[in-house]
Amino acid sequence: MGIRFVLLVNKQGQTRLAQYYEHLSLDERRALEGEIVRKCLARTDQQCSFVEHRNYKVVYRRYASLFFLVGVDNDENELAILEFIHLLVETMDRHFGNVVSSNTPMIQYCEDTLT
Amino acid sequence: MALSGMRGLSVFISDIRNCHNKEQERLRVDKELGNIRTRFKNEKGLSHYEKKKYVWKMLYIHMLGYDVDFGHMETVSLISAPKYPEKQVGYIVTSCLLNENNDFLRMVINTVRNDIIGRNETYQCLALTMVGNIGGKEFSESLAPDVQKLLISSSCRPVVRKKAALCLLRLYRKNPDVVNIDGWSDRMAQLLDERDLGVLTSVMSLFVSLVSNNAEAYWNCLPKCVRILERMARNQDIPQEYTYYGIPSPWLQVKAMRALQYFPTIEDPSARRALFEVLQRILMGTDVVKNVNKNNASHAVLFEALALVMHLDAEKEMMSQCVALLGKFIAVREPNIRYLGLENMSRMLLVTDVQDIIKRHQAQIITSLKDPDISIRRRALDLLYGMCDVTNAKEIVEELLQYLNTAEFAMREELALKAAILAEKFAPNLSWYVDVILQLIDKAGDFVSDDIWYRVVQFVTNNEDLQAYAAAKAREYLDKPALHETMVKVSAYLLGEYGHLLAQRPSCSPKELFTIINDRLPTVSSSTVAIIISAYAKILMHTQPPDAGLQQQILAIFKKHESYIDVEIQQRAVEYFELSRKGPALADVLAEMPKFPERESALLKKAEDAEVDTAEQSAIKLRSQQQSSSAIVVAAQPPVNGPAPAANHLTLVKMPSQNIAEESNVIHEETAVEAPKENGAPVEVQRNVEIITEPAPVSKVEPPASRPASQADLLADLLGPLAIEGPPAAVEQTPAQGLEANQSPVGDLALATLEDQSNSVQPIVNVEEKFNILCTKDSGVLYEDPNIQIGLKAEWRAHHGRLILFLGNKNTSPLLSLRALILPPSHFKVELSSVPDTIPPRAQVQIPVEVTNLRASRDVAVLDFSYKHGAALVNAKLRLPIVLHKFLQPITLSPEDFFAHWKTWNVQSLKVQEVVRGVKPLPIPEMASLLLSLHLAVTPGLDTNPNNMVACATFFSETTNAALCLVRVETDPQDRSQLRLTVASGDQNLTFELKEYIKEHLIDIPRARVAPPAAPQQAQLPPAAPATYNDPGAMLAGLL
User: What residue intervals traverse the membrane (chain A) (predicted)?
Assistant: First the structure.
C-alpha cells in the first residue's frame, strides 16, 4: 500500500513535475512516463480514471490542460487516491492562487497527508 | 518566497521561458551548468549564500528534466548551514537530487540528527521530511530512536509528530528491525488514542505498514481502530479542517479499515459488534450524490468497507447485501464505480457461498466485456474467468470466443489462454472442448501458444471416442481458403493419426486427405513441414489396399525432402522413405501414438504461475492466503467427494495399468521394443521406431516421457512452474516420476498418508546427491519433502553470484512461519532477500540471494531453513552449492604465457606440490573431464608426457580480482590410484585452497566408493592424507 509516484503532465504529454517515492534512474523514469502518458492521455471522459500499467495502477485526473497522475500499488483504494489528487489541487490552489507554477516542497508537504 | 532577491535565478528562469525551441533551451542550460561547475570547482571559499543560488538553479534544471550529476557535495553541505534559507535549500534539493544510496548523505547524518533532536521546530520538520523521503538503511540505524522519541513526545506540536510518524514509516520500510515489536505494540495503542486527526492519519499509515508485516504483535491495537472508525462514523469531535466535503477524513477511515484487514479475524465480541454496526451504517448510508468529489470520497469509504466485510466473512445477510450493492455498481453509468464494482466482485469470488449470487449478474458482466474502456474490459474478463464453473462454462467460453474477434491485440493472448483453460477445466463434453480449441486456433492463431494445441492433441489421443470427431473437424477446417499455420499443424497431425477413421465419409479418402494437406505444404514453415511429412507416412501406412499412385506421390515428396535444409526434416524424409519399403512391417512401426501419461495441464501451470508473483506481500494476497485457497487452485483439484459429474473436469484417460504410469519414463522404450519383437523384425528398426513415435511437437510437451529422467528433465520441472501436487507415492522415485502421479488414485492416497507422517517430515530426495549435482550444474532441485520443494537457479559473474531459491508449496494448505537464514562462512558476503512468512497453497515463492566471493575457501554456506506445516515444525540445514569452482573460469593459455607464469611462481607457498594417494582410478580422458567440471581448462600439448595434464583457470574474488591459477597433474601409468598434483597461483591462500579442493574431488571419498577396487590402498588412505600436505617434498620422493 502506498503511493509510488506523482506526475503532473500537460496536454502535450510533457512532464511538468515528477515526484518518485522509490528510486528509479532518469532513463527508467523517462520510459515509464512515456508509456503512462501515452496510455492515459488517449482516454476519453467516458472512460474510468484507472489504468493498469506494469505492476502499477495509475489513477489520474484532469484539470484543464494539466493531468495529475498518481502511481499506486495494485491494491490501493483507487477512489481515495482520486480524491487525494483533488485535495492536492485544492491545497495548491489555495497556496499559489492558481496551479501554474508550484514547487516541489509543497507537493511533498501535501504528500505527507497520505503517503 | 525564497526566490526573492536572487536576481540571477530569476534571469535564468525567464531566459529559459523565452527559449523558442528545445535546442535553445538545452544550450542555455548547458551554459548555466558549465558556469556552476566552474564556480564550484575554482572558488573554494564560496559562501553559503552563493552556494544556495547555484543549488536553486540546479534544482530548476533538474526539474526541467536534465541530469545534474555534480554539485551533490555542495548541496549536501548546505544542510549544515546555520541560517534557515540555506538549510532549507540544502534539505529540499538533497531530497530531490540524491537517492538513498548516495555516499554524500552519510556525511550529514550527524547534522540531520542534531536538527532532529534540537529545539528548533522548523529544522526538525525539514530534517524529518528529508529523511522521510530519501532516508536509507544507515539513516534507519542512526536516527530511528530519536524519531520515535519525537513521535511519542508530549511536548512536540502535532506538525512535528505528524512528520515523525511518516519518517519512522520510511525508516521501518528500509529496515524493519528499527521498531522493536515488544515495546511498540503498547506505544502504538497509545498513539492510536490520539485526538489530533492529522497526527492520527500519519500514525495510521505507520500502523498499516506494521500490521501488514506482523499482525499478531498488535492485537491490542485492534479495538482502538474500531473506536476510531466509530468516532468517524458518528462524526464526533471532528474539526472542520478534517472534513472533506462533509465526510470525516475519508482517508483515515480507509486506512483504519485497511489495517483491520490484516488481522485474520476479530474475536472480541464487543469490538466485532461495534465494527459491524459501523460497517452496516456505511453500507446503508452511502448514497449517490451530485458532487463528484463527495461522491468519490464516500464511495472510497464504501469500497473499503466492502473489502473489510468480505474479509471478516460476515453473516450471510450482510454478504448478500454487499453482493447486491456490487451488482448495482456494475450496472451504473459512472465508469469509475463500474470498474471498482467489477474489481471487487472478483475479490468477492474468493469468499465462499456467494458465487451463486454473483452468477445472477453474468449478463451484465458480459456487457462490460464490450465496454469501450480497456480497463473495464480487463476487469470483466478477470471476473468472468474467476466465476466460471461447470454450469456457465459453455456460455462464458463462447462469449470469450466471440469477443476474441474484436479484442485489441494487447488482450488477445491472455484471452486465448483463459478461454483454453476454462474450456479444459469445465468442458461439459469432450467434443465441445475440441470445438472450442479449434475455433480458438482458427480465430486467434497468433495468440495461441503451442501448449494449447499440444493439449488438444493429448486429449484426442487419450480419448478414443473423440478421434474420429476431431479428425472430421480438422478436415472441415482444411477446406477454408486461409488458415493459420497452427491450424495446419493440428489438422495435419490429427488427419495423419486418425484420418483413416473417416475413410467411409465423402471426400475423405486417403488420396483426398493427402491432396488437401499437400496444398498447404509450400506455404508453411519447417516445423510444420516436419509434422506434415509424418502425417504422410501415416496416411501411406493406413492406405489399404495400397494405392500405387498415392504411394508414388508421397515417396516423391520424401525423396525431395531428403535434401531439405532442415536436418530434422531430412532425417524424417530419409527414414520414412526407407521404412515405406519395408512392406507390412510398416504398420507395426507406424502404429498409433500410445496414450499420454496423465499429467498436469501445462496451461493450468502457466496460469498458476502467472498468479503467483514474487515474494511480494500485498494486502490482497494476504487476504487470499487467509482464505483457504484462490479460485483457480480450488477448481484445479480433482473433486474428492460430492456428486460431481464425471465430465466436469477433463482428465486424461487413465493409463492401462498403474504399473506403466509409475514407470512412465520408459514407456516409449517399451512400446518401441515390443513392436519389433512380435514380428521378429530386425533390431535396427527399433531406432527408427523411437523417432517415429515421437513427432517433434509431442516430444516437446512430454519431456519426461520422451527421455529417461535426465538432468534436463529435472531442470524443466524446476524452471517451469514448480511441480505442485501431492507427494509421490514412492519415496525412491525421481521427481520426474512423481509428476505423473498427479490426479491419479496414487496421488490422492499419498495425500492421505501425509497427515500421519507429518510429525517426522523427511526429505524425499537424497539431499547429499542433489548438492553434488548442483555443484556441477547451475539449476536443479536442492531439497524436497512431502510439503515443499526447493529449487535453485544460479548465475555466476566473476566474483558475484546470484542465486534464486524457488520454494514451492506442494500442499493445498499454506506453509507457515517460513524462516530461511544463510550462515555464510567468512569468505562470502551473502545477502538474502526478505523471506515471506507464508507460502500460499500450491504456490511458489522466489528468494533471490546475492553472493560476493571475498577470497578462496572450501567452506560451504549453509541454509538454515524451517517452516510449519500444521502443528509440525520442519527444520532442515542444507548446504548451498556455492563452491570454490563456481568462481573459476576456464581459460586457455599459450605455452609461452603458461611457462612464464609457471616459472615466476616458483616460490614455495605460491606453487605447491603434493602426492595424492587413493584417488579414483580414472583413465586420462575421464580425469580431464573431471578437471573440466571444476572449470579448469585442460590444455593438451603443453606437457609432452601423455600421462600428464596441465590445466588453467581464472579465479575471481573481491580480494584477488581475477587471479590466474595453473594446475598440473602427473599420473602414474603403473598405479592409477596415485598422482602428483601441482597448483600455482599468485596468491598463497588461493594456491592452498585450490589444491585441497581439487584433491577432495580426486580422492575416492568413502561415500562415492561403491565397490572398492583394492583393499590395501584404502587402509593406506587415512594416514596419507594429512601427512601429504605437510611435507610435499618427502612425498615427491616417494612417488618417483
Answer: none
